[in-house]
Amino acid sequence: MRRLTSVRQLRQASKAASTRQAAATPGLFVQLAQPKSQYLAVRGVSETRDYLPTVFFDEDVIASDALLTVSGADLVLSESCRPRFSPLGIALSPDA
């Protein structure tokens, strides 16, 4: 209950009118970022990885805040985006 009171007070103090209106429902999210169609989920992005762990989900699977989501993605990579490694993460030669 303390948490809801804190959210209500924080929203009431906002400069944005839409946020102040949302103070009436402190238990609900204000901004929903859930994709409305199938999406590509990307997790574990790191500059030291040679690959991105990804999976496709339908819109009824809720995306957590640990994911980056790409709405409208498809299974085809353009030539400029084609990975230079195998699906097992084994590096291929630059000419591959």
Describe the structure.
The protein is of the alpha+beta class. It has 2 domains: 1-30; 32-74, no CATH class. The protein has helices at residues 2-12, 17-21, and strands spanning 39-42, 54-57, 68-71. A 3-stranded antiparallel sheet has the order 2-1-3, with no helix packed on it. The protein is elongated. The model has no long low-confidence stretch (mean pLDDT 79).
Secondary structure layout:
Layout: H1 2-12, H2 17-21, E1 39-42, E2 54-57, E3 68-71
Antiparallel strand pairs: 1-2, 1-3
What gyration radius follows from the Cα positions, in whole Å? 20 Å
Order of helices and strands: HHEEE
Q: How many individual β-strands?
A: 3
Largest sheet: 3 strands, antiparallel
Ends: how far apart? 59 Å
Q: What is the strand content? A: 5-15%
> Can you tell me the residue ranges where pLDDT is under 50 for at least 5 consecutive residues?
none
- What's the total helix number? 2
Number of domains: 2
**Average pLDDT metric:** 79
Short key terms for the protein model shown above:
single chain; alpha+beta; three-stranded antiparallel sheet; 3 strands; 12% strand; 96 residues
In a few lines, what is going on in this structure?
By secondary structure, the chain is an alpha+beta fold.
